[in-house]
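User: These chains co-purify. Model them together.
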Amino acid sequence: MTDDPLLSVQDLRTWFHTDEGLLKAVDGVSFDLKRGETLGLVGESGSGKSVTNLSILNLVPPPGRIAGGRVLFHGQDLLGMPGGAIRAIRGDRIAMIFQDPMTSLNPFLRISTQMMEPLMLHQGLGRRLAKARAIEMLQLAGIPGAERRIEQYPHQFSGGMRQRVMIAMALSCNPEILIADEPTSALDVTIQAQILDLIKDLTQRLGTAVILITHSLGVVAGICDTLCVMYAGRIVERGPTGEVFESPRHPYTQGLIRSVPRLDRKNQFVSCIPEGDTEKGPERLASIPGQPPNVIDLPECCPFHPRCGQAMDLCRRRYPPATEPGEGRLVQCWLYPEEAGHER
Amino acid sequence: MSADPLLLEVKGLKMHFPVSRGFGRAPGWIYAVDGIDFHLRKGETLGLVGESGCGKSTTARAVAQLHRPTAGQVLLKGQDLTRLEGTPLIAARRAMQMVFQDPYASLDPRMTAGDIIAEPLRIYNTRGITHVSRQDLSLRVDELMERVGLSRRFKNRYPHQFSGGQRQRIGIARALALRPELVLCDEPVSALDVSIQAQILNLFKDLQAEFGLAYLFIAHDLAIIEYISTRVAVMYLGTIAELSDAADLYCNPLHPYTQALLSAAPIPDPKVEASRQRIILTGDVPSPDRVRAGCPFYDRCWKRMDHCRERTPRLREAGPGHQVACFLYHDPD
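Assistant: Joint model of the two components:
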């Protein structure tokens, strides 16, 4: 706990100026990432999780604009850096992998060309060394026949294999942080398990910190140390993964955890259930009513209140302050104002 | 149970697609569905689960005659749909409707919600199969919208004015317009957000209880299949690997592939995740572009035996209401 965080995102605001109004995709997001930590960002589509990560590397596409906040990496603000300086960090010290491995690989170039480029650019390796390193990374990522496969094109790889190539490429420069945006959402269950194992195994071995963006609570539960739940551009709850699952504080987190059908009641690979216990789960899933909000011109109140079963008058008037119900935990909800002791 | 007549019976269904490369004869075939049998009774849900490319969607489309099957029979209330064409086919198919995966692509952007929901009835009117008056049609649309949880005030709105979950409700209302007995649901919740998924799954359950609907429910998520299904068929490479009562399948999976799927499914609970054992399969699903000798799962199976390479296991009874296609449970004949 004594060492400084590797990456510190402070009050990040990324706004999009659209024809329909001001869209606050990210509106005051703060979190710290420690060395070797795996942090999960969970939320529904439009909650701002992907924009948060694009903002970290200053890659927000127009009409988006970073309206405020700081992203400190080793104490340096990435947002204020000139283009050349941040380009030296992207892909080298902070690497990214995306959801769809087909669209993030160039279909016209051999894998070798694409994998050697960052190594030659960032690490200053010559062609021979770069290729040897690329092959080594592919082998590490579990691609059989890497020497032969490296000369092939992306379309010759299956979806799972392409994601392995992406992971190998992202980790080839030995980055300090890996940002993985929905890395397994396009993959099948059995392949998803392979890829998550690979990310976990490789980043542990190399000591890489990971920011994992996903909509799947199951994925987070398996791999993340810390969990941030996002709703309408803000982090509504944060904490160690185990604690958040055990005692979720925010009504949205509670609803989210309850609304996912679970397999483990009867799954012999998960827990030991007494013989003959075929107790059926709840007949109906507890669902969160209503729709996710439209974040354009959102009023200054709790954006979850129309869907919240515990909404109070206060929730309709003001945005709740951040409170800390425990070590390393944070929740933004009017249900817990006393525990804060202070208002932000 | 067995006294009920079968609502749907599928026998030896095969769906092969020619691979075309320009002109001339097809150089090969994709064996998308390669000989499957199942049946559905009134009011029950058969879950169809498997990885992408295993043939689950093709099965639903071949059952609905959207693809005409290469071989096999599809008996809906005793009538073989594969032998019918034109208006007789459409009339016979009335009892079976479909809900699609993508709530964006499956609704015509230039039609209002009301028109989309009324369209099936209009088509049946034009074909002379139904005779629903204008007023009745309008009333029926109102009633359907309310039933799926949409306000009738939204009748004149266009699909882009609805969210994903609301669009899926429009798709469901459209499927219910002809008062079907069987609804084919092709991944109806996989494009939706987690909190909306639960709403739609609950809606499916409520509608089933109210109208006595049977579902053929396709999903790749095992937890969703478990929640909604009475029986489950696990598909692999165009064939059914295991078919069983839902409870029995999840408690006591027999096929090595089902075991691997169950062990790989992520569970939203860190304590469980930390303590569980996983069977990690090596390799990818092979391409269904050739006929294979032996078990389709042979390449990835960790319990394979010598004779699995040459002989193809058939779906056989392994216990009451539990069928499996694997030589671990019956001898090669």
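Chain B touches chain A through 51 residues (CB under 8 Å).
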